[in-house]
Amino acid sequence: MMLSTDIWVAALIRRAELGGGFGMVVRKGDARAGSVLVKTLNLADKSVRLYGEATRGDGERVWMRPALSDQESDLDRYIERAIRIDPDVWVIEIEDKQGRHFLTEPVEEG
């Protein structure tokens, strides 16, 4: 059984806090089944990355970088488009000295 999105998001933010980062909900989506975008900010070098959830053909949940740009303005435009397409999407921002995302599922950096 999969967790509802609101509980999953709370756990992600808690992992970030326990690991020395800071996480916040920028936009709430559907509490039960909303998709999630995670934007990370590396405080050391000011780099940003965006991660979106996806499902592999075998049903495994993975994370990928839907926008490979390292420009925050490009990532913000991607997020705006995603919200227009899916108003139930959650947007989480994580700030960390090492740029960690704190996701526990597989991440395909591609």
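The record above closes out task 2.4. Task 2.5 opens with a second protein, given below.
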Amino acid sequence: MESSENIDRMTTLTSVMETLRQRGIHREFRMNEACEMKYEGSGRNYRPEDLKIVKTYRFEGPSNPDDNAVLYVVQDNEKNLGIILDSYGADSNYPGQEFDAFLRDIPIEESDEY
């Protein structure tokens, strides 16, 4: 297993996602049309207080603003880990303000473990 120091040095979204996948963190939390956050493969709806952000990775394209993305490692109150992936800047994966508001309300407890 790579140390957290090594994962922090990764420069691409693909390399971080692959390292997380190798650690068993690959399922996504996704917002549906009803603005509910769902855990991939689960029927459960989450409120922001049911989750916490344990790590945030930001990626900025050197020449194209469309290359900007953020990857959140998220843990639910049952200790399931997953990711939320979103492009940011001019385009977002989720239109409207609901996604941004939901993210702002998730508690942040950054951990060097991820």
